Amino acid sequence: MATAELAGKHLVLGMTGGIACYKIAELTRLLTKAGVTVQVVMTEAATQFITPVTMQALSGRPVYTSQWDARIANNMAHIDLSREADAIVIAPASTDFLAKLAHGMADDLLATLCVARDCPLLVVPAMNRQMWQNPATQRNVAQLRADGIEVLGPDSGPQACGEIGDGRMLEAGATYEAIASFFAPKILSGRRVLLTAGPTFEPLDPVRGITNRSSGKMGFALARAAQQAGAEVHLVAGPVALETPWGVLREDVQTAQQMHDAVMRSVAEADIFIGVAAVADWRVDHASEHKIKKTADRALPTFSFVENPDILASVAKLPHPPFTVGFAAESVDLEMHGEQKRVRKNVPLLIGNLGPLTFGMDDNEVVLFEASGSTRLPRADKQTLARALIAEIAKRLPDTSLIR
Ligand code: C5P
């Protein structure tokens, strides 16, 4: 979980009545761990599901529930609580509260805070599927969107009532991601990004194969940063044990050939291609159909290899390539090999790191190679670095009007 992106932000976290209140304990923990000041305000109904004591302990601040709370000096909690806030997040947002918001009602502290706010408002609906589908709710949600209120979710799936459908609140982790995404500058808005990430796996037989130690962390971090920057993101991933970043379309592949084919199928729609995967250079000519057995005379198996397609070079060679970015992991002489590789692969931008030392690690230091020279970025964790790299890529894009 990235932290720096929300550090220093101040949120009013408004809780309304619903069983999904239990998710807000975890959300509060994630937000405070990321350096966010969380001011919890609860409706009377919310306090039936989880206590203000729990929420105070998790947020580290007193919880407000009443419009008549005299703890704020001027007795104006409904004004003052939102004045320091970067946003108000209503989670869970009940059917009733969405209706109130849509009509500008102000009959309790939280509703009044929302009407009196001068900051963005995000709502995270949580309700039974029939309540969500009810035409009145849908009318209210459309009105909220038209009023510039951000609606996060809802999710689909099993519900506390035992029914299955739309209306579940996003999980705490997904809510965190959606909030982080809301605050990220939309420097790739309207752009489509295609990425490869992770290792490839080249089978020798049905149970064995050749792979490498790429964890996929850098590629997944870039996919997440591009999504947060407003891009539509398609991630072609080799075998990795990582969660799909929120809002990203993921396609899983095993071999370099499959990765190549997946990229070639989608590249025509992409404005940007980033090849982060550590693609195997060779594969076994004919993988054995059955598990290779030890023989009585202990003869060693022999394999012949053929070269895999170079995905990055194939993309760069297209008649109308997207803005194409390569990665290079070098163990020595990065400065020299980086620029040589950029020219050889014919890409405008190549990002070099001193891997494979960085494989699997959480931080990294990279150098950008381009025709005009090289630029070193400061060492940082991969999420921070991914945001910096997306900003660097965005700066170098041709004007949208000039894009194919
Ligand atoms: O040649 P090398 O593997 O060092 O090049 C690294 C860059 O080329 C990375 O961007 C990687 O994703 C890409 N690549 C590729 N297909 C290959 C080999 C590398 O797309 N077969």
SS element count, helices: 13
Low-confidence stretches: none
Strand order of the largest sheet: 12-11-8-13-16-17-19-20
Which ligands are bound? cytidine-5'-monophosphate
Outline type: elongated
CATH superfamily grouping of the largest domain: CoaB-like
Distance between the termini: 36 Å
The total strand number stands at 21
CATH architectural grouping of the largest domain = 3-Layer(aba) Sandwich
CATH overall fold name of the largest domain: Rossmann fold
The percent range for strand residues is 15-25%
Structural class: alpha/beta
- Tell me the helix content: 25-40%
**CATH level 1 name of the largest domain:** Alpha Beta
| Main sheet summary | 8 strands, mixed
Which helices and strands, and how do they pair?
Blueprint (H helix, E strand, L loop, with lengths): L9 E6 L5 H13 L3 E6 L9 H8 L17 H7 L3 E7 L1 H8 L6 H7 L5 E5 L3 H5 L1 H12 L3 E2 L3 E4 L5 E5 L3 H12 L8 E6 L4 E2 L5 E2 L6 H12 L3 E6 L11 E4 L3 H11 L5 E4 L6 E3 L20 E3 L3 H6 L6 E7 L4 H12 L3 E5 L9 E2 L1 E5 L2 E4 L3 E2 H15 L8
Parallel strand pairs: 1-2, 1-3, 3-4, 4-5, 8-11, 8-13, 11-12, 13-16, 16-17
Antiparallel strand pairs: 6-7, 9-10, 14-15, 17-19, 18-21, 19-20
3D architecture notes:
The protein has 404 residues and is an alpha/beta fold. The protein has 2 domains: 10-183, Flavin prenyltransferase-like (Rossmann fold, 3-Layer(aba) Sandwich); 192-286 and 302-397, Rossmann fold, CATH 3.40.50.10300. Helix content is 32%, strand content 22%. The chain has helices at 21-33, 52-59, 77-83, 95-102, 109-115, 129-133, 135-146, 172-183, 217-228, 256-266, 311-316, 334-345, 382-396, and strands at 10-15, 37-42, 87-93, 121-125, 150-151, 155-158, 164-168, 192-197, 202-203, 209-210, 232-237, 249-252, 272-275, 282-284, 305-307, 323-329, 349-353, 363-364, 366-370, 373-376, 380-381. The strands form 6 sheets. The chain has an 8-stranded mixed β-sheet, sandwiched between helices. A 5-stranded parallel β-sheet has the order 2-1-3-4-5, with helices on both faces. The mean pLDDT is 93. It binds cytidine-5'-monophosphate (C5P).
